Amino acid sequence: MVAGGGRRVACAGVKRGPETGPSPVDRARVGSKHHVITDGTGIPLAATLTGGNRHDVTQLMPLIHAIPPVRGRPGPPRRRPRRIYADRAYDHDKYRRLVRAEGITPVIARRGEHHGSGLGVHRWVVEGAFALLHWFRRLRIRWEVRDDLHKGFLTLGCAIICWRRLKAHSLC
């Protein structure tokens, strides 16, 4: 018997882990967010997982630091991209300064301004990557209780997308 009586489990929310949190849009149900940074063609370079109630801007610098070196051209590999395109969720002066300190030009839509910033031309690439990731049912609906398992499936989904893109390009 549990001290609470009935069929209740003491501290039932503890087993969900730190990468979950109440969703601000789904009646405070426990959920998580995927954060993905892609290259210009939509290939995922890095992905992270946070709780549903975390701000997007907090994951900007960890995603930038997780980008692998760019290879394929003569000379030393580039460690960072030249520009970062992001939507209004990443608009914060502190993070703009941090991105500039990394040697990257931030192209981020400003909050409070009218739509039509022109970033939709670049933003659809990231939305396409999210659509490809969420074709995997394990990522669209989170069934795993443990965070490390869901992060593993997220990494596996990114790897499968990269492999499929490379396979399609090698057939041409």
Describe the structure.
Residues 25-160 form the Transposase IS4-like domain. The chain is an alpha+beta fold and 172 residues long. The chain has one domain: 2-Layer Sandwich (Nucleotidyltransferase, domain 5), CATH 3.30.420. It contains 5 helices and 5 strands. The protein has helices spanning 60-65, 93-101, 120-133, 137-140, 147-171, and strands at residues 21-22, 30-38, 44-51, 83-86, 105-108. α2 links the parallel β4 (83-86) and β5 (105-108). It is globular.
The percentage of residues in β strands lies in 15-25%
pLDDT < 50 stretches: 1-14
Highest CATH level, the class = Alpha Beta
Strand order of the largest sheet: 1-2-3
The secondary-structure class comes to alpha+beta
Q: Write down the overall geometry.
A: globular
Supply the CATH architecture: 2-Layer Sandwich
Order of helices and strands: EEEHEHEHHH
Overall average pLDDT: 79
Largest sheet: 3 strands, antiparallel
Number of helices: 5
- CATH fold annotation: Nucleotidyltransferase, domain 5
User: Taking Cα atoms only, what radius of gyration do you get, to the nearest Å?
Assistant: 19 Å
The number of distinct β-strands equals 5
Distance between the termini: 64 Å
Number of domains: 1
Q: Describe the oligomeric state of these chains in a short phrase.
A: single chain
Percent helix: 25-40%
Pfam families: DDE_Tnp_1
Protein name: IS5 family transposase
InterPro entries: Transposase_11
